[in-house]
Each structure stands twice: as structure tokens, then as C-alpha cells.
């Protein structure tokens, strides 16, 4: 997991996550310890962590979580998050955490791991490099939400233009939070029924066109308390919305003024974050493309993303099954890339996806040393199945060899390309393959590529036969290749061509007469079989 250039304190992380998601169990070193990065640890992953890391321990509860908890403390992790089934588990894990010196947080029952992961990463991303472990900065959305809550005496949430929650203030009293806010935070997004009401009441139209604060009355029948809202704007573009929910006490007298100021501060933050994100994505794509093509070494990408360049890596390749899809609109290519990204991220958190026309590649860095080809083939199969099921696209996938480190990634990419080339040229029925699956097809494909690039090593008699068919709309070359593919079985070849066996025998004699070939000689049969497989020969 790459280390973040920025850091936040455990106290600020708790403020960012809120009581509705996690509960603090023990903090042996206090709440001002530094968190530098966040990682999901799957039960199949080796128990390890990085210095200053927040480790989200998935799939292990009770005593099963103890080895990972101890390993995280050994490696210098700041905190570990687990799910608990009961008080007994909390006591046992808490005692161990206190003993080894790592903070322990528990995930509440309704919360989801991916939600905590996203919010923790967002809190880190909001903190610029050199961010102090204690104290708020203007660029921190969570701190801005908390400050706005203090100034308005309300409960604040900040959303993007798609109504996804980016940050929210922390409430110490769960009774102050209405059902809408609770469901929005737990679901990352406002419930559709309420969003429909806001559209009906004209709230979204107002936010889209105005900088002014708008009020929404309470609706007890909907579980909604009174709210204020203001658009976060940059020029004519709406970047998001700040919402202030009234708590058990009325909103302060100057709430609207505070909300206007908060919206302007949030606008600067979101514009900066979009710019930095765009610059970071562009740099990552450039370094990734250079590594795959072999024009850039492994260290720039490893340094940029905090990867260990000495751990195993592999490349998966994907290609569209037909030329029509390659020429499809850019939206189709974006949908495929997004689908691949979502599916592979669920399997390997450090995966990187990029498109190098006309193919899409997945770099899998920092793989476990125990990874095998069957596992990677299964990941590939999941993606091609999903592309066919959800997008109706005949996607082909290839598994490049697992290499010892990032420096050998171009070798894995070349193997992935070799497999895709063979699958496409031979029109194989399989959607996913590794080299052992189609070794013969790959080698024959590469022989044909060599033969195609060097006309001087072709038999001119076969070239003349193909030219004769072209002039006379004949099928002699096609019939000869079918006969050779059937190992000289006339009846089988005739059946494939849908002709009578005698018709095929006549065509074979005619081909020998025109070319002078002697089909009784193995070397001439071998050369004919190869050359007639060239795309221009049939």
C-alpha cells in the first residue's frame, strides 16, 4: 500500500469517520499519533503493515484477528480496525492491542469496509503534505465541516455534484442526527426518495442557479429535520453542496452567513483537489505506459506510488473480440476500462489500469509470492464474463507471466500480447488464456507473422496458386489447406468444405498440376500448411 505524503492524527481520523461508523476501543499512545496511509488487509494477504498505517482487518474476528493485530503493531502500524461479535472479543483484542501498543477501533454493524476505507483515504487526501498531526487547516474538508457545525450550531455534511458525501461534522449525540443524515452517511449518498422530494420542491434547481442559501422545512413524516443548503460554486459550475441540519437546538443567528463563507472555502479546496488529482492521474498514466513499453524503468513509478519494486508483478491484457468494437465510440472504451478497474480493484488493491490503443492493460504490482496462474486466470475470466453480461462485448483476456519485480514488467506485457495476438489471429473460442493453455497456437501465430514479414522465404508456387484463385474465383488453396488440416482425410475435409469427396480429390490434383507440388513429401505439406494460413492466402 503506498504511503501518503500527508498525514493526519488519530483524533482527526475519528472526527472524519464519525461515531456512526467506528468506535474507539483502546489507544495506548493517545489520539495524537500520526496516520500516514490506509490499507485493507484481506485474510489471504500475509499479515503485515507499514509504518503509520491504518489497517482495516477484513474477514477475521475474535482470536482469529490476533496474529494480524500483532503483525501490524510489529511493523509500526498506528491503528487497526476490526469487526466484533461481542464484548468478550472486544476485551481480548483490546488487551492485546494495549500490550503491543497499537490503537484498536471496531467497525459498527451497519457500516461497510469499503465506506470506511474511502472516507479514511479522503481524509488523508484532504491533508496537504506537511499537514500537522494536531490542528485544522483550511484545506481539510472534514475540519471545514466541523468548523461550520460550530458556527451554525447544526450538523453539517459536504457533498459533491452527484450528491455523494465527501465529509461531515462529528456529532456526539446520535439523537441529533435525523434519519436522512444517518442513511446518507452510511450509504455515501442521499436516499433516492428524498432526492426526488428535493427535485419536486425545486431545491436542486435553486442550487444549480444561485449562490444564495436555501431553507428546507422539517418533515417529521419523512424523518427529516429543518435544513439549510448552499451550492459550492466555481464560476458558473456547481461543484457540490453544503447541508446544515438543525439539531436539538435551533440554528444560530448567523448560520446563513457562515454557510456562504464555508461554501467559498470549500470551492477553493475542491478546485485544488481536482487539479491535483488530474495532475497525479496524468503522471501515473505516463509512468505506467513507459514501464509497460520498456521506455521507463521501474523506479519512477515505484517512487511515485510507494510500491516495492522487488515484489512479484504481472500484466493482464484485454482486447476487443471484433474490429467493430475497436472502432466503437469513446464512451464504450471508457465503460470497458471502468468495468475492468472496478473488478480488478476488488481482487488486488494496488492494480493499475491503462489503455494503450487498441488494448487495455492491468499492472498487478506487489503480488504475494504464492500467487499462481490459475488465480490470475480466474480474475481475468470474471472480467470477460462481466463485459459480456453487462456491456454485451466479446472481450478477450490474457495472463502474462508472473515476474520477480517491476523491472521485468515489459516481459510480462510482451507475453500477454503474444497470447492476445494468437487468440485473435486463430479466432480461438476461449475468452481467457495463459501461455501454457495455447502454447502451440502462440508459436504458430509468431511463425506466420515471421512468414508474412519475409516474402522471400515463401514458396512462389503457393503464391501463384492463391493468385490463380483470385483471378478465377476458385477455391483450390482453401481446399488444399482443409485437406492438410484434416491430416489427409479426404472425407473429413470434404465435409468441412461441404463438397463431395470426389470434388475435393479433383481440386487437389488440379492444385498439384498448377503448382508442381508433391503432396506426398512431408516438407512440402508442412510449408503449404503454414503459408496457406497467412491471412492473404485464404
Automatic annotation (TrEMBL):
Entry coiled-coil feature ranges: none
PANTHER family the record matches: CARBOHYDRATE DIACID REGULATOR (PTHR33744), CONSERVED PROTEIN (PTHR33744:SF17)
Organismal lineage: Bacteria, Bacillati, Actinomycetota, Actinomycetes, Kitasatosporales
Species, as recorded: Streptomyces muensis
Family: Belongs to the CdaR family.
Name the UniProt record assigns to this protein: Helix-turn-helix domain-containing protein
Residue ranges annotated for the CdaR GGDEF-like domain, each copy included: 302-421
Domain PucR C-terminal helix-turn-helix intervals: 476-534
